[in-house]
Amino acid sequence: MPRPSVEAERKAQILASTCKVIAAEGFRHLRVSDVAKDAGVSGGTVHYYFETKRELTDAAFEHCFEQSVARRRWILESDEPPLSRLRMVVESYLPEGAETVEAWKVWAELWVEAIRNPELQELNERFYGEWRDIVASIFRDGQRSGDIHAPGDPVELANMMVSMLDGLALQVLAGSKAMTVDAMRTTCLRFVDQLSTASVG
What we know:
This protein is mainly alpha-helical. It is built from ten helices and no strands. The protein starts with a helix and ends in a 7-residue tail after the last helix.
């Protein structure tokens, strides 16, 4: 049996390849053989770590979420004022750059499939809830410090911002001529700027 460190590395490699294939081919067209090919391992190796395709895809969605948060950990741990942190969140989630675009495509696949799949609905509920809580904590800090003047529940404010990022990013990915990355940036940053001067809603 491989050493634990080797196992962890290979497992992460397989999950990264699964996310890549989901983003490129879609959730429903995912084949274990394609994942194995991209990861440079055999199909048997994939099944050694993940007995079923569902096990593999669930773990891949979780891997995508964890990697997304990890890439932005520096923002969450920053000493910058809350409004600055919200602006950094916006910039970091704009669908540009291969890594971020791939992650957005994986999330889009999860959302579409979750409409019909109760198991994926549970995954979405957990991941989305954790992400909303992270953004809400920034709003909460801003209200306490006086940096954010918008009244109301921080979770509701987080929902406004997260839904704005999600909706506009999907339009960008869908190739909208009216909603480019620059237009998305302008719209989201205008929302953040309004938090310091007036109520939102």
